[in-house]
Every structure is written in structure tokens, then in C-alpha cells.
Amino acid sequence: MALTHYACTHCGSWILWFDTRKPLYCKNCMDVRNALPDEDFTYIHIDAAKEKYTTQWQEILPGLWDFSTSPQLGLGSHGWLIIREGGNIAFEAAPHYSQAALERISELGGISILAASHPHGYGALWELQEAFSPQLIIHKNDLEHTKAFKVNHPIDDFEQLDEQHVMVRMGGHYDGQTALFDAEKKILFAGDALKIDFDENGEARALSCHKGYHYHIPLTPDELRHYQKVFSMYEFDHVCTPFEFGRNVSQKKALALVNHLLQTEPHTNPVPLKTLLS
Ligand SMILES: [Zn+2]
Ligand SMILES: [Zn+2]
Fold first, then answer.
1. Distance 36 CA to ligand 1 centre (A)
2. Neighbouring C-beta atoms of residue 205, cutoff 10 Å
3. What is the pLDDT of residues 154-205, one digit of tens each?
4. Which among 3, 9, 32, 72 is most buried, taking Cβ atoms within 10 Å?
5. Bridge partner list, 57
6. Structural domain tally of the chain?
7. Are strands 165-169 and 178-182 parallel, antiparallel or unpaired?
């Protein structure tokens, strides 16, 4: 029986399943860190997804490209492409890459290293893997979520990719949640270690942390202290989550949030930057 890929239309996760019948359920939506669909699960076969979805891209900083899918599929993750001497790094993935998007990535030099912070950023990693055969790096503690693609480079808590790029485990939200720090661009690709609320001008207005967003499950003090340790290690000016570019969400602001949360009752509410920086 042939296997194929279906996307859960609620969250956008890809599921490797039998070609002749739809998946039984979406593991990602069943998890406490995501919501269930309002009614039943619905899935889209890869062949139908190719018809329905297109992929956009833009260079948001010199050498950093943002890929996304429209109309929105599931949670609407973004894939980041870092142009690098010696081979590009793709971190997180959009929910679908059109043929034109794959050709654009080829023109930009392809992908040598493919990685993601945690399952909410996996998007269509499998499409990038099939197209470019990169090293595919995921933290060993999140391997149970990777059935839709093939991890060929599981990592421990710290992995130096080159002089400018390092991956470090954040944990918390997912046990294997892992950030990527780009020292050249001063960006922390932080996974969902930070959630950013924006104002009408697209400026960061408030920050929050959670273990589970929909159920409002806060992080524990030890998890917050680990975020604090990682944020302290890297001087970043901006953050990229699997969903957005947090321009000017700096190390100072991220540390102010964690320090604030360590002094309050556990919660997942957005804390205005005005409060944090006062
Ligand atoms: Zn789902
Ligand atoms: Zn997440």
C-alpha cells in the first residue's frame, strides 16, 4: 500500500499515511498544546494542496528570506532561509512550497541544513527535504513528532553549526524545543519560547511565554530559568518565531519578560513592553 502526505486543515501538520484512506486523527491537534477542531478533523491530500495553495517569499533583512503560504493553511507557519557561505540554512517551514518557491530556493543556493524549533514550526519540512536532501536537524527529545519526514541528524542540547550559527535547547513549551542563534544578523530563532503581540503599525507591543497557548498553561519556574539562561547567552536584536518576524524584540526585552514572570504568579498573559521596560 502506497504512502502519501495529508495536511490537517486545522493546524497544518503533515501526516504520512496510506494513499487509499484518510488519517485517523491529527496527533498535533490531539496534543494539549494545540486546540481541537470545532467539529471533525479534515485533511487535504498533497495533490489537492498543490492546486489550492501558493507560496510567497520576501527578503526581510539582507540574506534572510521569509516563506509563507496563502490562503493560510492551518496555523500559518513561516519558513526562514538564511543565505550562508558554504550552504544555506532553512529554519522552520511554511505549510507548503510551490514549485516556483522551490525553484527560487534553488536560485538562492538551495539548502544544506534544514532544522526546526519544535512541531509547530515543522510545516512542510518534508517537501524541502525531498527537494534538497539536506542535513535535517531536530533535537532528540522531539523525534516522536517527526513521522512526516526523516531526521538524519538528531542533536543534543547544544550544536555549533559554524562560527556564526549555534542551536541550543530551550525546552519549556516542548521538551526538545531548540533555538537557532545567528550571530551575524543578531537574530534568535526562538521557536514559541516567545509570543509577540503587535500593534497596528506592526511594532511589538507585548510579550508572553507559555507551555500551552490554548489552555493557558504557564511555564514552570525552572523552565523560565532555563529560558533566562539561554536568552542571557546571546546578544540578539530581533526574534523570529515560527509565525512572525519580531523586529526589535531584543535580548533585553526577552530577559525583562522572563525576569517579570519569575516574580509573579504563573500566567500566560501578554505583558506590555511599557510595563517590562519601565
Ligand atoms: Zn492538526
Ligand atoms: Zn508551539
1. 8
2. 15
3. 999 999 999 999 999 999 999 999 999 999 999 999 999 999 999 999 999 9
4. 9
5. 67
6. 1
7. antiparallel
Residue 226 has pLDDT above 90, yes or no: yes
CA distance 3 to 18: 5
Section 138-167 average pLDDT: 98
Indicate which ligand has the atom closest to the C-alpha of 209: 2
Tell me how far the alpha carbon of residue 10 lies from the centroid of ligand 1, in angstroms: 5
How far, in Å, CA of 258 to CA of 270, rounded? 12
**CATH number of the domain to which 105 belongs:** 3.60.15.10
Closest of 169, 188, 165, 166 to residue 178, by C-alpha: 169
pTM: 0.97
In terms of residue numbers, what domain contains 190? 3-276
Beta 79-82 vs 158-160: how paired, if at all? Answer: unpaired
Crossing angle between the packed helical segments 251-261 and 221-233, to the nearest 10 degrees: 160
Backbone CA torsion sign across 152, 192, 257, 235: positive
Residue pair 157/169 in contact (Cβ under 8 Å)? The answer is yes
DSSP 212: B
Please determine, for residue 1, whether its predicted confidence score (pLDDT) is greater than 80: no
Query: What is the per-residue pLDDT across 59-113, written as a single tens digit (0 to 9) for each?
Result: 999 999 999 999 999 999 999 999 999 999 999 999 999 999 999 999 999 999 9
Give the closest ligand to the alpha carbon of residue 36: 1
Cβ–Cβ < 8 Å for 76, 98? no
Q: 214 C-alpha to center of ligand 2: Å?
A: 10
162 touches 154 (CB < 8 A): no
